[in-house]
Structures are given as structure tokens and as C-alpha cells.
Amino acid sequence: MYKFSDFGIDTNTMTKGLQGDKIKTDRILNREIVVETYKLGPSNFEGKGDRLDLQFTMNGTRHIVFTSGKALIDAIQKVPKFPFTTTIIKENDYLKFT
Fold first, then answer.
1. What residue ranges of the chain have pLDDT lower than 70?
2. Beta-sheet strand order (sheet of 21-22)
3. Which pTM does this prediction carry?
4. CATH 2.40.50 fits 18-97, yes or no
């Protein structure tokens, strides 16, 4: 039986996952957060399109939130530098950064 270490794969260069406790979007609405990084990928739900995994700090604690909000996905891809502060608000049933 092989051991993983036998393969000689350097795990130090692999993409690291996001860190923090998962939190619901409703708990961060209208509160200032510090966005540290993000990851885009397909949603786990068929027909939902892309999913934004957002790593942020709120009140000194690191969290992750998952959303398929198209306005947030479009906006995050245009951000030139991280980290940044923002507030996520709900306007006309859409989530957006302010």
C-alpha cells in the first residue's frame, strides 16, 4: 500500500482553502466588515450559477460567507487590492457592497 508521502507531492504550493467559521449572510447585513480574500466557483445547487466564497473579519473574528448574489460576484472581481472595508446591504432584493 502506498503512502501519500511516497508520491513526492509538495503540498506547500497548493491552494489553501478559506479560513473562518461559516456565517449566514443575514448576520452581516448593514455591518462593517474587512474583506480579506474570496473564491469563485460553481454553486452546489443546480441552476444557481456561480457561488462567491467570501473570507472576512468582523469584530476581530474571521468568518466565511457563501452567496450567489450576482451584484457581489460582479463587484468583487473588479476590486484591485485586498483587504478592504465595506458594508453589505440588501437593496431591492439584491446584495451589494457599499
1. 11-16
2. 21-22, 61-67, 50-58, 32-42, 84-91, 94-97
3. 0.80
4. yes
